[in-house]
Design goal:
Layout (H helix, E strand, L loop, with lengths): L11 H23 L7 H12 L3 E2 H8 L3 H13 L3 E5 L7 E5 L1 H22 L4 H25 L9
Antiparallel strand pairs: 1-3, 2-3
Helix pairs in contact: 1-5, 3-4
């Protein structure tokens, strides 16, 4: 494969390289996650990230974003409340609704996880050339913009996580 394709042809070689890089990133994320002071499941972490993006989100909306049934999302939140990472409060507009927000400990945990991920990524990036890092940064920015534009055009209900 020579890497030269028509403008509408997907570059499968590039897609495979990105897939490999994504697998390496996920491995790094998992390693950072394992070192966290409070162990979390994948769904618990996604819940915290979603609540961080949308403070005061209600349980029904959270369940929808996580693609879970309401009772499962409720049990997941119960565990996060017991762990001291999440607060449930009556909603501002409708007191029957429950608004979800991170506790200071929940926020600190996400900061800790991001910090560990950034430290691990910086170690890999340090081994790259300056031109390689610049090209990667430009490519990732364009990738994100293109993905976000495509999602907005589809009205994709799943938000983009920066987590």
């Amino acid at each position: 494969m020579d890497g030269h394709h028509g403008p509408d042809e997907p570059d499968l070689e590039l897609a495979a390289a990105i897939d490999d890089a994504a697998a390496a990133l996920l491995s790094m994320w998992d390693g950072a996650h394992e070192r966290a002071t409070t162990p979390l499941s994948g769904p618990q972490l996604r819940a915290l990230l979603t609540i961080e993006e949308s403070p005061g989100i209600n349980l029904r909306s959270l369940a929808g974003r996580l693609r879970m049934i309401l009772s499962s999302a409720s049990r997941l939140c119960d565990r996060l409340v017991l762990a001291g990472l999440l607060d449930r409060e009556p909603g501002r507009l409708d007191r029957r609704e429950i608004a979800l927000s991170l506790t200071p400990a929940g926020t600190a945990l996400l900061v800790e996880l991001r910090s560990e991920r950034h430290r691990r990524l910086a170690g890999v990036l340090a081994g790259m050339s300056a031109s390689g890092r610049a090209a990667l940064l430009n490519g990732l920015r364009e990738f994100r913009l293109t993905r976000d534009t495509a999602a907005a055009n589809r009205l994709d209900p799943a938000p983009a996580h920066s987590g």
